[in-house]
Each structure stands twice: as structure tokens, then as C-alpha cells.
Amino acid sequence: MMDTLSPGFGDPVADSQACFRAVLDAMSRPGRVARVAGVVPPAPLGVAAAAVALCLFDHETPIWLDPRADACADWIGFHTGAPRVELDRASFALALSLPDFASLTAGTHESPEQSATIVLQVASIGTGSAFRLSGPGLRTPTVLRVTGLPDDFVARWDANRALFPRGIDLVLCADDRLTALPRGIRIEEG
Amino acid sequence: MAYVAVKGGERAIDSAHAWMAEKRRGNPEVAELSLDQIEQQLGRAVDRVMGEGSLYDRELAALAIKQAQGDLIEAAFLLRAYRTTLPRFAHSLAVETTNMRIERRISAIFKDLPGGQILGPTYDYTHRLLDFGLTEPSANAPAPTEPPDDASMPRVPDILGAEGLLESVGAPNREPGDLTRQPLTFPADRDVRLQALARGDEGFLLAMGYSTQRGYGGSHPFAGEVRMGTVAVEIEPAELGFAIDIGDIVVSECQMVNQFKGSKTAPPQFTRGYGLVFGFSERKAMSMALVDRAMRAAELGEDVTAPAQNVEFVLYHSDNVEGTGFVEHLKLPHYVDFQSELQNVRRLRDEVERLREAAE
Amino acid sequence: MKGYNFAYLDEQTKRMIRRALLKAVAIPGHQVPFGSREMPLPYGWGTGGIQITAAILGASDVLKVIDQGADDTTNAVSIRRFFARTANVATTTRTDEASVIQTRHRIPEKQLNEDQIIVYQVPQPEPLFRLESSRIETKRMHGLADYGLMHVKLYEDIARFGQISISYDYPVMVNGRYLMSPSPIPSFDNPKMHMMPALQLFGAGREKRIYAIPPWTEVRSLDFEDHPFRAINAPDPCGLCGATDSYLDEVVTDDKGGRLFVCSDTDHCAERRAQGHIGADGMRDAAE
Q1: What is the pLDDT of residues B241-286, one digit of tens each?
Q2: Quick one: B56 and B185 in the same domain?
Q3: ipTM for this prediction
Q4: Whether residue B77 is found in the same domain as residue B111
Q5: Is C203 a catalytic residue?
């Protein structure tokens, strides 16, 4: 099995740093889209989702992996060492469709950082349904276009946002592009 | 002009380092210390630095002591900074001190016991008279040796425990915490507390332990057993499925036995305080056991009134690397804040003056 | 540097810090515990800031390090050298050239831009620590957003002194939710945190906490309607460049009460002088 796995980052130190800065930038300025590189992704993952996994997962982060992404389970296990667990125990969920926010851990009022992050691979970022974002990180409201979020996304996000400071953070990935939606951001249909 | 003095920081640092290196070497006509000499002849210093530096490596500890000119807190810091980014390959299994190859083993609560009392290499009954014979190198007469005692040496608490007189302590059914990876959170479980104490400053633990004997959280301690010797460290690689021995370390262990009058849920029995430290560090192991017991006050339904019983207080202040850094950082420039305070005090005084004048 | 990873920290440690940073950004002003490592510099010297900088720094970054606003103070020199040596990054003293600025006790006078990150060294992240020493209690207060203790303290100040008596490390509310220590910057710098275009990251190594303020986020210094927040600064202009809007160091020039006020931000002062601004003492200085 192992010898058929594609490699991880070409330059692990530089590539994970670059990927992290892209995620940090997107989390700081919600909706900002960045491109990442450095990895040949295993199907069905795109470059961005694979890079985020290599950048943030390790044996200290239990992950939930979408069963439809089973084909890349060995690749993720080998390169990150992250143990695979049920949704409610995961630090990260690597998903191909948006899981129910309530099935993930949202932290406590005293330790809201003990919450899960969803890394969601969608069909496209930059085209598709428009969402109007406002809140910390944004001087003025901005519009993010995404294809692949559920129809009731805004309502589901509102329920997640209502938990603040508890809540789930979302990293969206499509091909080599990524952006992020931290729990406190306001999202309206654009 | 005066402010120009802050310029030239770069050169100042280089000069300071060069001077420090010169001071460390001292008079070049005096032979330079070798790491072997430190490791062999300053063994207690090496033990302390390994314990507080959280790294069992006698040679590196000796190097740290040499580099720090014998400043043991500085040496522990050097060792910590080295260990912190080392990759982790495995976690050891719990060391089994019952199987210790004993160098010293004493119990204060039994005159004699299975395995016997073994004094070992101790200062306990030396007369503290400066030995001027040591001012000159001398060949030491070898210590008399006895054949090793093969008799089993049960740990004293196990003897008491068999009778039900000592509380039983089950092993936690989870991996122990690790303060070097996860920051302290409260309530802190005993595994994490013990880890913090084992890394803690000997002087701090001594003072805290001592305070419990003077009425600040007393717990009627008896030294159930102190033992020192060599234990095996084993790991169990997942791919092997069985334990392998990766080496031996010397540790000191202390089991304090403390009086306990019982509570609503527990019958009268003795309770435990536990200490385990790298190397021959009996003072610290005993202090640790006292403080461990003191920190169990709340769990045992006792009033928490004394500093040693205050888990948050003890754990946040026991680490000498943290403590020395923060105390000493006061020598870094603080002039921005100080001058902010200067303006502030001037403003407050003006206000007081204005009010006084208005009142007159 | 031989034997060490890029920017000193191992990749596993960087990942841990990076995860904490993302949480910190997502919960502005909330202190996120992290597995702070011993660094080769002592606690109190900026180990929290150094760990954050090490976790974010890339080969193309340009780093500026200041202590008390100055690039040439010994600790700033030492930290800048540390990263030049371990990460081989370019360093600068120019605020506008830096992509990452690590600071102790000041915010540069020049407004930071969207492409910059400022990393604060924090000795004590808990804004309530003088009022409540137990972190179990203060954590509970943050959880409930119960900051009555701090309001009472400020109110008592006003009753006693007629004003709020805090001149540095002046507490702020971030995004209307979390009470936060801005680190021991003079309160003069507090307004710069409000709606800052740059990302602000805070590292407390010894206390093992990371927190953050995203760009364009509301940061309000605590005050009362009838006693609005007032920044404290020396009343004089800078003796060297004549600036009237910068934070000033008071330099003792003799033992007869002689004082000189100069910009604490050395880059700001140098830039102004290069542009031809001259203060009263700068004139004299040049003549000497």
C-alpha cells in the first residue's frame, strides 16, 4: 500500500508555512481567497484541502474523514498521523459536504477554543451563490461566491454563530483555492 | 548626548558575551574542567539539573553546568531549551520501582522490614566538618562491598496496603497528561501535578514542604520509605506489541504515609504523598511527597487554607525556569511604561493640587 | 542554523502554535492556551512573541523587532539576530518595509497596513490578574463576560483620583465581548489597536496563552461616559524632530532637572528628520 502513496509537501517546511499563512490570512479577513500549492493531492481531494490537512493535522488532532473520501485515508494517515474518530470527537472534519454543525464539538464558554474546525471541499470558490460577509476582519462587507454549500447554509450558519464564543470555524477549499469563515462572521444571502 | 547610549546594542551584546566567556574560563593557567569531572565529581549537581531540566542525560547536564558556570538554574534552563524541540519517538511504560536495583532504601516507620534498611551513599550521619583532606587530590580507599542482597524489597506502602490501612490508589485508566505539550488547566489531576513537582525547583518544594510541617496545611507525615537506585525504562512500540528495555536511569522515590482520620465516605486510614525525582535527589523527593499530599487536601475533604494546599499557587510558581525568567526580565528596559507612569503621577498630583486649591 | 529547523521550532510545535493562532483569530480577544515551549531566550524576554513569529515566518518575510519603540535596544537586537540566524530572513528597521513586526511595549507611530502582522510580547495576558489572582476564577469571568470587577476598580479610581489611574497595559474590550490586556504598551497606543488594518497577534510564553485581534476589529479602551478614555503623553514636542503627535521618551540630561523629550519610535523620528523636520534640541544637536 505505502509505496503507492503520493508524496506529501515537496518542501514540508516552506509549503506548510505558505499554506498556513494563506489560512491565517483567510481566517483574519473572512472570505479572502488564497491559492496554495506544493502537493499532488490524492483523489478525491484537491490541492487546497490536501495542503490544509498536511499543514494542520497531526497525531495530536483526531480527525473525522468523510467516508466518501476514504480513498485518501491512507495518504492522510501516513503523512499526518492523525487518528480517525467519530464526528463528535474530532478536532478537524475533512468533509466533501457540510456536516451538521451540531454534531461537532463547539467548545465551552470558558474554553471556546476546544471546538472543531471543518475543512470543507466545495466545487468552486469565486463563482456560484453569493454570500455577503461582515464582521471582524472586514472593513466593509464583502461578497464571497461559492458553489457547493447547502441551500439552507445561511440558516445553519446563523445557528452556529448564535453560539459565539462557542462555535465551529469553517475552511473552504476548492482546487487550489481556499478561504475561511470564522465562527463570529455574519453571513447573509448576497 | 545621553539617549545615544542606547545605540550600539549590537556591539554591546557581542562584548558582553566575550567577557562572559572569559569569566567562565577563569584563569587559563588553572586546568579546564572536563565534562567527565563534572559528571563524576559533581554528581548531585548533575542530578538536580537533569531533574529540573526534565532530561535524563548526565553528559548534557554536565555540559550545561560547565556552560552555566555552575549556576544550576541556568543549567536546567539550557537543558530545557535543548530538549523542547527534540522529536518524540515513543512514550515509556511506567517505571517499576518495585524492581529497582537498590542503592539505598530506608523506612522510618518500621525498625526492620523485608529486604532490610540499606543506608547507601548518604550524608545523613556524616559530621559536617570541612574535610581539609580534600584540598589536595588523594587516592580514595575503596568502599567495602557486600554481595548484593537478592532478597525482594517490597515497597513499604505495599506492606501497609495489604492490611487495608493505607488508601489504595488505582492507576488512571488513561494516558497521563504532559505539561510540556499541553498547558496547565484546572482542576489539575494528580498525574499532571506530580509532573510539575518533579520538574519543579528544589528550593521552592523544600520551602512548601517545610511549611506544611510548621502548621500551614499539616498532614502528620511519616517517611514510609525512601529508596534510590536504578530502574529500567521500557517502551512498547506499537508495531512490536511487546516491551523493550531502552536503558537504565537512577531515581529517588519517597512514599510519605500520612495520618487521616477518615471522612463520611472513607474509613480512618493512612493516606499517601508521593515523590519521584531523577538521580539521587532525596531532599527533593521528600519535599515533593509532602507537597503532593498537601495538594490532595480538597480531594480528601480537608479545608484548603495553606499555600501548599493551593494547587494553583503551587503549580504556577514551582517552575524555576519560568520564575527566574520573569523575575529577571525586570532588568529589561521598561522606560516606556515607567515614563507613562511618570506623566500619570504628575497628572494625578496636579489634580489633587487643583482640588485642594479649589477647596481653600 | 546547523542542527535546527527553519526558525528554530520543530514542525510539530509550529503546527500546534498555528492551530492555536487560528482559534485565537476566530475568537477575537480570547486567550487560547497553548503548549508553550522553552525557548533559548528566558521567559520574560519575549518567548511568546518569538514562538508566534517562528510559527508564522516564511523565507520571504521582512522582520522588524522593536523594544520600547526602538530597533536598537539590546533585547530587540538579540531577537532580530535570533531570527536572522535561525531563519535567515531579511530584517529591517523601517516600519513600512516590514511584513512582520515583533514588539515589546509599543505600537509603531506609522499606521500599519493590511499586509502586515504585528506580534506583541505579553508578560501577563490576564487583564484581571491584579483584581483576582486565581486563573480558575478569571477564566469563569471571561466565560460569562462578567467584567464587573474591572468596572468597579475603574470607578474607585475615579472616586479617589478624579480620573482613571492606569497609564499602561490599559484594558480594552475586543469586539464588544472579551476584556483583553493590550500588553504593557502605554495607553497612548491603545487607540491604534482600534480598527487596525494589520492583524494583531499576542504571545505570552510563560503564561502559555495566545490571543489575537483580526484586522478592522473594534477595540475600545474601558471608560465611562463622564470620564472618557484619555491617552497620556508628555506635553512637549520631540526635541529632535519636533513631532507633537508621537509618544515621547523622557531622557534625563543632567542631575539638575534637565530633560529632553524624544520620540520613542526611533524609526519614526529618523524618518521625520530625514524629511527635514527639526526639533529644538535637534537644532542644538546639529550645531554641536
Answers
A1: 899 999 999 999 999 999 877 776 777 888 999 999 999 999 999 9
A2: no
A3: 0.97
A4: no
A5: no
